[in-house]
């Protein structure tokens, strides 16, 4: 007598299982293991170099510069433009590699076959990438600020976390990391090619702002709709050299930093559902 047994059912993966899987995949990438410490070293090193230069040259500065050193120049030493560009470039590249490596290796097909819910899978990746890069951004900005201000304290021109304008500036700097990672991830889903994705990410985040002027209303609108320029408007205490009609508000700049990753994520979720692998 043959007894028919019910077919064994494989439990569907829960969302926390997807998060755990994406966590392992992110840290299994070889670039991830060296890029974060290398980025932190470069970012902090740039700030330290600027702070040491100001410490040495402070007695030779003009009276006007010395009077305005705090908070303007002290805050710039904490996280210079060069630090922001390095952070955006490397973290944006990591965000791109988190998805394009799966397309290149074919792992994405295996993953999607095991988890047909494509948007849930990509949402888990977005959350993991956002969480890791946000923590990294906060940590590296805090370390850079602490070290540079310790150097400047020898001249009595340092800042503390509680001083006016410090926390908003540092928050904008820390936000660059998750913003750049999600923009890179979005371009990765769109292009699905490593070199092209990295090139486009670098162009939009780092290179394009230097080619856009602010002499006309429309060029100023384009310029301050770019993440790097939005960050500069938030991180710089002294007024930017922008004609008054075109000066962006802090709210405008925060919206820019929020809209870029949101649009990149929304586009990626739409594409991954509708497009063939």
UniProtKB/TrEMBL annotation:
Claim: Lyase is one of the keywords in the record: no
Domain of life per record: Bacteria
Keyword hit for Iron-sulfur: no
Record keywords, A-Z: Membrane, Transmembrane, Transmembrane helix
TM region positions: 34-53, 78-100, 121-146, 166-187, 194-212, 253-272
Name of this protein: ABC transporter permease
